[in-house]
Amino acid sequence: MSVESTQSKLTANTPMPPERLLDVKQLKKYFPIRKGFFKSVVGQVRSVDGVTFHLNQGETLGLVGESGCGKTTTSRCLLRAINPTSGEIRYRQADGQLVDVTKLASDELRPLRREMQMIFQDPFASLNPRMNLLDLVGEPLLVNGVANRKERSDRVADLLRLVGLRPEYMRRFPHAFSGGQRQRIVIARALALNPRLVVADEPVSALDVSVQAQVLNLLLDLQEQLKLTYLFVAHDLSVVRHISDRVAVMYVGRIVEMSPTDELFLAPKHPYTAALLSAVPVADPRIRSKMQPLEGDVPSPSNPPSGCHFHPRCPFATELCRQQAPDLEEVQPNHFVACHRQAELSLLGVSEPT
Amino acid sequence: MTNQPLLEVRDLQTVFELDEGTVKAVDGVSFDVYPGRVLGIVGESGCGKSVTIKSVLRLIEEPGRIANGAIRFRSKILGNSSAEMVDLVQLPAKSAQLRALRGNEIALIPQEPMAAFSPVHTIGNQLMEVIQLHQPVSNEEAKKIAVNRLKEVGVPNPEGAMDRYSWELSGGLRQRAMIGMALTCDPLLLIADEPTTAIDVTTQAQVLSLLRKLQQEHQTSIIFITHDLGVIAQLADDVVVMYLGKVMESGPVDQIFHNPQHPYTRALLRSIPTVHTKNRSRLPTISGSIPHPFQKRSGCPFVARCQEALPQQKCANQAPVLKAINEHQSVSCFLHQGGGNVS
What we know:
Chain A is an alpha/beta fold. Chain A contains eleven helices and twelve strands.
């Protein structure tokens, strides 16, 4: 079986290149489906089904896909916000030591939590309405031992300045702020402990377009200043193109393609990536695409199709695609594709602006 | 295309009287919808686009009310002759005339089809209800019409889908069924309120190409509400750009995207990342954020964020009005109305 062969190939204990911050191998997260009085397990939702990727220090990896493809579950597994079913997440700590996040006990995880932080999608849900900014942004400091009140409020003031908010607002409550400002507060809170890895789960999708640009620029500036590494989860391809160094595309629990951003957008090698790109409405009435939209719907991860998960919607599918799942292979330096026919296909990316 | 508009909205003002004060959600909006054309209304949240179309449907509820303006619609069932227009604002709320109009001549595709369908009735039942409400047909005929509609919007196995409930369908199918329901009575005007916001991009592409196909086949007029400029560019013939309850600019889609005149339109177009933007470049932004609707304003609503605001506080003190700058395009900005001279 090809899945097993990949497994053995990838879990071989290869040393991690020095620029790597994070190495994820064959990550799986299955949620059980329970039914009946005894809650017996009748099936599995394969939310994340063998995902392999890496993050280099200081870069941004965009993780894109449609709803239900497992991108959020993947990002939560990295932080052990949920426990993965199997797989390996190797992380290089600030002191250079390598740890497998999946194998750590919860007390061993605590020092790691400082280094990995999360920015959530909805700034209206992720801020406690009864806490003021000082408490909200200062809480991670308090939890991690900055007990001195003066010290804490100085640090919070610095953080607020860093994200472009006035420190005088420290005593105000979240309701006094607009969506964009709230997202700045969430970012300030995530940065409170000088993290090295920031997982941003759809950080701008709840914001208005005119405010989106401000927050994206802020994230880019902060990355430069603080040498942050981002995993940027989003469904909006335009935003991902704008902010990412590399992009990974997910479909029903698997990564189908991963490559440097421009390469992925200009010369996609997986039919799903190409379909996704052609589905984005172009903000120019003179380019009214004559594209053929994909037929059908995204399959459910509880009952995915056989072989390549994309084959029922793929215009290029063959018998092999129906039977055997393709491996994610490096077809060009840094360009990974999981498609049996990638070598024969020449797919269209986005056309360059004229 | 005839030159007679199907719908004329003139100086519409919809206000909400709340304890905290009066919110002018829609503040003097005017636009025309022509037969067989797609009008896109674009704006950020809180700009009044949804309230505008709710006003057109006369679905504004307490404490909101239409304070001023006219909504003239060329109705076939209410008008005596085709030349006459009916002012919907003058019709009593909850009147039989309005009920005859809604769903029949003016139909709505709501944003969230999950919330719009009843979860305890089958799709078929709900479709047949609409048909029998507006047409004197038997159950069997109604069923036949409903199945045909579902087939037309590309629902696979339409007979089977009739017996299913909305929650059994995927997001894309549900939205297709909703479009089928809106089209059951061959409306003259279809209003789509962010119909693709809640669905994925590949499904969105399916729904958009379906809407375009149906629009061309039936020659229906559409008002399409969205905050997504990409969707507007792909679907609309004419565009209205709204900001804080006012129309900033209106005109043909090509003019709006390639020759925008209002500073807000220009800033909006510059600030969106597209799949074409240069990787990791800084986006030009619109500074600040949308002012709170309770805030008292005089002058242009965009003035605080405008980079091209005129000196001497003219823009802050005086409100510009929407004026035609050429045959098709109208702009509400002093830059195009005699420059900086205080009149």
